[in-house]
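Supplementary Methods, section 5.1.

A reviewer requested that the exact input to the structure prediction be made available. We therefore reproduce it here, unchanged from the version used in the analyses.
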Amino acid sequence: MRYAVFNSYFARAIAVPIVCILALAAPLSAQVNENKVRGNLIQFTDNGAWSWFQDERVVVDVANNQIILGAIANGAGFGGTAVDGDVRAIQFDLSSGSRKTTVLGNLKSYGGGDDHNVPAFQIKQDGNILAFYAGHNNLNGNEDGRSFFRTLDTTSNTWSNQREFSWWNSIPSNTPGAGGTTYSNLFQLAKEDPDGDGNGRLYNIARMHQSPHIMYSDNNGVDWVYGGQLTKQPSGAPTHSYVNGYYKYSSNGQDRIDIIATEFHPRDYNTSIYHAYIKNGKLLNSANEVIDHDIFDVAASFDASKITSTDDFTKVFQAGATENSRAWISDVQVYEDGSIRVLFKARDGAYSANHDMGSENQNVWLARFDPSSSSWSTYKIARAGGELFTAGAESDYTGLGALDPSDPNTVYISTEINPITGVATAQHEIYKGATSSNGASFAWSAITENSTFDNLRPIVAKWDANNTALLWWRGEMTSSQRFDTAVVGLIIRERELTSPIEYVDASLANTKRVDGRSLNITILTGPEEANGSWYVQQGFGNCDNVFASGGTGPEDTPTLSTVVTELEEGIYDAFVFFWAGNDEDWQIRAGLSEDMLTTFRRFGAQGIDPEQFPRDFVSVENNSDLQLYRAYLGRQPISEGESLKFFVGGSMHTANRLIPTWFDGVGYSRVVDVPEPSF
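The structure derived from this sequence is encoded token-by-token as follows.
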């Protein structure tokens, strides 16, 4: 069954007769389109999450037409304990949509794959890509003071062996504080080149002994040197101080690293927001006044009189005693015009010694530095809702947000309070905000809607004005060490247009076994006994049937291929449609080649939105118990008259449970480049 109604950009429509009657469980107007996404959702990895104090977690490698992102797998997610703690680097090919995942290492902290242990990346001047990662203060229950690193050779597309840098073996013995390391923040400053080899100095700034410390390399990452403690504990420390501030960084890649910081953890202190920057080995405040003449002068022996703290930074935001308390940073970006934007959160109400007090009402704020006046302005821009999860001590965790590195007037936030209506939503949703007043007000639009699980911690990779990579993760999280989530996102290309998706129902006419053997199909209307074959579940789905695998027990069903024939010449995005329960993780293995099947879950797919389909496409529900999902397979060029082949694997099973597959059909959308406007 096919339908096609191309939009006005395309030269003509394709008229194909309807060959079956759609099954409709409820009138379309009565259905709630759950897990809706405005755009083409891509699943980058089936198990992953990240914290937000390591950067860059996503980079766009324009020279090799790929996106590289990092994630940490958790034992509560897909793959279970076998992948718990895997440090993943995912390469997403922007031409084909293919994904390659490399496990850089395995780091478990506080009992599992910890979201703090995610890698950070830096595209070096030579085109190769450096990755650094560290445990969250400990590894496998033992305190640890190492950072691990590897380099991707983009010519051979291979990662080097893992190496490590021991902070404990490098820092002076009189350095204050205690504990292990965590976080990685990578930079290369092209104009700092002490050895004159044409490659600027590389930096990694990580938290060690409760404070930020520096390591650097002047031979392009081959050898690393300890650079000293960046700042010391500020004045007025609370009785219990977990860390001496939280730091986020942004660099112009040439000669400057900007820093946004708090004094302590907002759990322990009524934290404010501060700014300074590194340039020529010095630390300066927003007014360009030097506050540390040599950031490296405590590398050999710690001397508190030689370094500074947030006491001498420029104050960006003052936390209030009766309102706007406990600030914490989400993102910072420096723009070409010299302006700086900061996204942060603060609680609505007063500060209290009880860190849970007021955690249910938090807000998203934006700060802007105007280089012409050397002044900061701050604006409350949206409500963030309450703490992300109530278990544990992290009452200041929220959905967070991201700034667009290419557009200072665009932000993305995750919140459980709709900024358009002010109404609370069942789950955290992603929204895009646009301002024409430098942040004083925003116009909001929804990226996700009617979600049945959370959408959290968006990030936007540095790219260009015509292309945006917006990523986040979605699913269920109960702590930093326990989450069942998939990393997803949108690739938004301004110079590209796609047609509405044409749906093709999987049928006995267009779907065969890839091994050429007969497809013996059992026609059922009820549960199926495990017999190693696919069956057709009648009375359900589009065209009143679906291909199903996985009945009452594990079975090894053959791989299927659904073929769409006689396509026009062009480039096509390809999709697969499958069913999943509202509270069950039904999945499908699918791809554009038999030997590269990807497992898609409801967390990594999007609910059907009729607006993204031709007029007569109809999604179906079964008493709201099951939902039809669409998963993105990739992109493929097709010559005139060629066929597009889709491959689908059978059900999966673990030692404890069966994961059914209900395969309904496939879809495709034609891609066309939009010419540059002429004036």
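Residues 499-673 form a domain with the Jelly Rolls fold (CATH 2.60.120). These observations are discussed further in the main text.
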